[in-house]
Amino acid sequence: MAAGRISTGVPGLDIMLNGGLIPGRVYLVKGSPGSGKTTLAMHFAMAGVANGENVMFITLEEPAENIREDFGKMGFDVYHENFMLIDATPTTEHYVLVEDFSESFAKNLNKLTESIKEQFRTRYYSRVVVDPITMLKLASKEELEYRKAFLGFVKTMMRLRTTVIITSELERTDIEEYLVSGIIEMKLFEHNGELKRAIKITKLRGSGFDNVIRPYDITERGMVVHPDKTAP
Ligand SMILES: Nc1ncnc2c1ncn2[C@@H]1O[C@H](COP(=O)(O)OP(=O)(O)O)[C@@H](O)[C@H]1O
Ligand SMILES: [Mg+2]
């Protein structure tokens, strides 16, 4: 690992990032459903676990049970004691992080920020995943309140000195894009009648990065980025 960098868990992506993520910052992973955001987030989480770190993974769309089943099959150590998987999906009854999805997104985001802070009181987590943040945003109408809440989220995470990946399915993610330290975009497209995948970095504060769009695959062992190839 390059000095001062931490691994995303995807070696090809670390190369594109000139050595990995700068720790203690918040990053956004964008992409349409099925592009592989949760898979990338899982690689990031498990790279931390493999490194002896505590990792918090908050799932807002897929129930924790499904996450464990699908990614367990891929060979990820989803039952590791350092891997704290928090189910905050709308249907969950036993652990409700976000009580009422009909509330404003800002309120829910503030609640999420507070809950993460609360978890840090008993244990330090060097990596946090929020997957996907879209789930909270879809209901949001109050743009200004939301902006403040997102700023509060970023500031709190940075104060907690943790590295965070949030994912989003929205094409327009406006305020997040200004406030996060880096943006990774995952794209699905058709080429010669075949479904292809390509990844690009559009922002990385404090570092140079690979500005070429690179192909990636999702296999039964997870995600592989080809930093030496170009997308069609
Ligand atoms: N064993 C596998 N082999 C190939 N592709 C897979 C495998 N498991 C899942 N995938 C692909 O991974 C994608 C799901 O990735 P995921 O990380 O859940 O996407 P997102 O979170 O962006 O919706 C699906 O499109 C699926 O085709
Ligand atoms: Mg997902």
From TrEMBL:
Gene3D superfamilies: P-loop containing nucleotide triphosphate hydrolases. InterPro entries: AAA+_ATPase, KaiC-like_dom, KaiC_dom, P-loop_NTPase. Residues 4-232 form the KaiC domain. The keyword Metal-binding does not apply. Keywords: ATP-binding, Nucleotide-binding. SUPFAM superfamilies: P-loop containing nucleoside triphosphate hydrolases (SSF52540). GO terms for molecular function: ATP binding. It comes from the Archaea. Pfam families: ATPase (PF06745). This is ATPase. It comes from Thermococcus eurythermalis.
